[in-house]
Design goal:
Order of helices and strands: HHHHHHHH
CATH architecture: Orthogonal Bundle
CATH class: Mainly Alpha
Distance between the termini: 42 Å
CATH topology: Globin-like
Number of domains: 1
Radius of gyration: 14 Å
CATH superfamily: Globins
Largest sheet: none
Helix content: 55-70%
Number of strands: 0
Length: 130
């Protein structure tokens, strides 16, 4: 049986680190996108938002389904419906995720697979013209 992307990345700690790098990059380089997230008193994306995304990512990549147990089905389109997601937002999101993958040293076939899957999901979530 082939290992899941979750296993190929090294399990929970590396996937959580990927989520952290993703949001760190967003805060540093995509402030308009960062402002769409819940922010703390220092203007940083909240720990709750970071942890929730990490939990989602763990399950989405084939790890434990704790997100589903705690929050139910992700319903990504419904959860993103309150935010206009156009091509520029999609591309900003992908820049953040690709930077996080780079920072984590994800290479080769796994990197190609993840870039493709993230791009598909990001494009699926577009709900605004442009």
């Amino acid at each position: 049986m082939n290992p899941t992307p979750f296993e190929q990345l090294g399990g929970e700690a590396p996937v959580r680190a990927l989520a952290e790098r993703f949001y760190d990059h967003m805060e540093d380089h995509e402030p308009a996108l960062a402002r769409l997230h819940p922010l703390d008193e220092q203007g940083r994306i909240t720990r709750t938002a970071r942890d929730r995304f990490a939990l989602f990512l763990i399950g989405w990549l084939g790890g434990p389904q704790d997100y589903m147990a705690r929050h139910g089905h992700p319903r990504l389109r419904m959860r993103h419906a309150r935010v206009p997601v156009d091509t520029s937002q999609r591309d900003a999101w992908l820049r953040c995720m690709n930077a996080a993958l780079e920072h984590q040293g994800v290479r080769g076939p796994l990197r190609s697979f993840l870039e493709q899957r993230f791009a598909e999901v990001a494009d699926f979530l577009r709900n605004a013209p442009g």
